[in-house]
Design brief:
The structure holds 2 protein chains of 2 kinds. By secondary structure, chain A is α/β, with parallel strands linked by helices. Chain A is built from 7 helices and 15 strands. Chain A is about 20% helix and about 35% strand. Chain B has a single domain, classed as TIM Barrel, CATH 3.20.20.70. In chain B, helix 4 crosses helix 5. Chain B starts with 6 loop residues before the first strand and ends in a 14-residue tail after the last helix. Classes of the chains: A alpha/beta, B alpha/beta.
Chain lengths: ~280, ~325
């Protein structure tokens, strides 16, 4: 018998595109009608998007973190980085998009829900900010102070500051070229704040998403300060459902799958030295 | 066993390999469908002609370093490296789910020596009763001993040796999966047939690599991998045709099948059954769409028996 008694938690669905706008240099905000995803997606989960039907190039879906959740719609934020995202940026309002999800495990908010934490520290690198807005939205109704550290290469690439501020978060910006905020890496900026004793390590958790080298640096830093840290990882991915074993990441318990065991991992369980820098 | 659904409205999808009937000729390929469980939300598993499991080995293998997968033009390059938790775990934790599904089950097995192949097959039939074993002699991501080549299926003698040994360990179907990375694939298929194979399955992936020019590095952690998907279909069709013309045992064809028409093309080239691979990873619900498209093709061409397509090239 293949008939299931359990509820379906993920599926492929044809979603109508409501808007697909260029919001900053190379960054696009895609809004789709997706009641199933709006109802079921948790912060940190992702969807696997077929950018165009009936084409074999690009062949695979592209994984995108759920950026914002509305009552019947969800937003996806992406940066044009290759042929797949390039094609996605050309898709128009009213067209249908084949979306698989929600997939993976999201962020663990138990230390907020049980009232232990006083501060949630969100660390975003580049378009890694995408899933962290949904996370901040989830936190906004709870008794927690939200501090956002966002790093971008330059002022023109800065996105989502308004969204975070609307949710009551304090936003700290770092740019590589110093065109806005702290000049340098976002991890350096965060370090300064931690060192000056802004956060009590026992009463705060870090939630981060961004390029692998940034997360790796962050993981090394927070180990010293003993602040629990959750990181959302990215890797080349195919199926998104744990079948192909393509998106492996080395952890202290051997290889784990980003699509199925992640994308959110405890920073302490990932073997950063053995990942692609 | 659940094979009755194969005949509907004057359309007969049933195919036979030796004494075993399959409800339809469309199977799912090893390594692209887990052990079935991952796909239960997306596919009515009892509609599937046969499920070929992810390859299992005697001992657990941790697989290759990431990145393990990268997309190329209409293709998927992988170097998973046969990650699996070993035969004991498979029989205890993974096969029981599959066992409950009313469809044909094929267990894909790989090993680095004849002895290990024997041990694996023995263990499988001691505990369970799958309809077939598929010998994976052609994974491009593992090293085999007992041959001067990289792959057992590049060596007719080594292939013959493994097939003969495996044949003694099972009375069920024995399928041999071949690599296309040889000068003469028909020659290897002939050796497999002569040693007791009940069918040959082809093609496994083509060896390939992807390079990141910006980083000046190979993309895959393992440097090289195996290419699958629509990019390899013309080459796979030719390999199926070459083998079909040279052996009497059934040929199971695969390589870039994305539609029901692709299924028909492989059967026309000589495949009695086909396996869907990469398409499962692009769209987990592909199976039923492709089965529907294949039925629509048969109806449009007024073909009543799917099996009558096999090798019928004009």
């Amino acid at each position: 018998m293949t008939k299931k008694c359990t509820k379906i938690t993920r599926k492929t669905q044809k979603c109508t595109i409501i808007s697909n706008k260029n919001i900053a240099s190379d960054h696009f905000l895609l809004k789709i009608e997706a009641p199933f995803l709006a109802k079921n997606a948790n912060p940190g989960q992702f969807v696997n998007v077929k950018v165009k039907d009936n084409v074999t190039d690009p062949l695979l879906r592209i994984p995108l973190g759920v950026h914002r959740v509305h009552s019947r719609e969800i937003d996806l934020l992406y940066k044009v980085v290759g042929p797949g995202t390039e094609l996605l940026s050309k898709r128009k309002k009213g067209e249908k998009l084949d979306v698989l999800g929600p997939l993976g495990n999201g962020f663990d908010l138990s230390s907020i829900n049980d009232g232990r934490d006083k501060t949630a520290i969100i660390v975003a690198g580049g378009h890694g900010v995408a899933p962290l807005v949904a996370l901040a939205e989830e936190m906004a109704g709870k008794k927690i102070k939200i501090e956002v550290f966002a790093g971008h290469s330059t002022k023109k690439h800065i996105v989502c500051v308004k969204e975070f501020k609307k949710l009551g978060a304090k936003v700290h910006i770092a740019t590589d070229d110093g065109t806005q905020g702290h000049k340098g890496h976002v991890t350096g900026l965060l370090n300064k704040h931690i060192k000056s004793g802004d956060y009590d390590p026992g009463l705060a958790t870090i939630y981060a998403c961004g390029p692998r080298p940034m997360l790796s640096t962050l993981a090394k830093d927070v180990k010293r300060y003993k602040i629990p840290t959750q990181v959302s990882l990215d890797e080349y991915m195919a199926c998104g459902i744990g079948a192909c074993l393509g998106c492996a990441v080395r952890t202290r318990d051997g290889y784990k799958l980003i699509c199925k065991d992640g994308p959110v991992f405890d920073a302490g369980e990932v073997e950063w030295g053995k990942v692609k820098g | 066993m659940g094979q009755g659904k194969g005949i509907t409205q004057d359309m007969d999808l049933i195919i036979k390999i030796k004494n075993i009937t399959f409800k339809n000729p469309i199977w799912v390929a090893s390594g692209t469908f887990g052990c079935g469980e991952e796909f239960q939300d997306f596919v009515d598993l009892e509609k599937v002609g046969a499920i070929v499991t992810k390859t299992v080995t005697a001992r657990a293998r941790e697989g290759n370093p990431p990145p393990r997968i990268v997309e190329t033009a209409s293709g998927l390059l992988n170097s998973i490296g046969l990650e699996n938790k070993g035969i004991d775990f498979f029989l205890k934790e993974q096969y029981p789910f599959l066992k409950k599904i009313k469809t044909r089950k094929v267990v894909s097995v790989s090993a680095s020596s004849v002895k290990e192949f024997e041990k694996c097959i023995e263990k499988i039939y001691e505990k369970e009763d799958p309809d077939a074993v598929e010998l994976n002699l052609s994974c491009p991501n593992v090293k085999h001993s007992g041959t001067k080549y990289n792959l057992l299926a590049q060596d007719a003698k080594a292939t013959a040796k493994v097939v003969r040994a495996a044949k003694k360990k099972t009375k069920k179907l024995l399928i041999v999966k071949l690599t296309p990375n040889v000068t003469d694939i028909a020659g290897i298929a002939i050796a497999a047939e002569a040693s007791g194979a009940d069918a040959v399955a082809l093609v496994n992936t083509y060896p390939g690599m992807a390079i990141d020019a910006e980083a000046m590095k190979p993309v895959l952690g393992n440097v090289v991998g195996g290419l699958s998907g629509p990019a390899i279909k013309p080459m796979a069709l030719k390999a199926v045709r070459d083998v079909y013309k040279n052996v009497k045992i059934p040929v199971i064809g695969m390589g870039g099948i994305m539609t029901g028409i692709d299924v028909a093309e492989f059967m026309l080239a000589g495949a009695r059954a086909v396996q869907l691979g990469t398409t499962n990873l692009v769209d987990p619900s592909s199976y039923e769409r492709i089965l529907g498209e294949f039925k629509a093709y048969l109806k449009r061409k007024k073909i009543k028996k799917a099996a009558s397509l096999v090798g019928k090239l004009g």
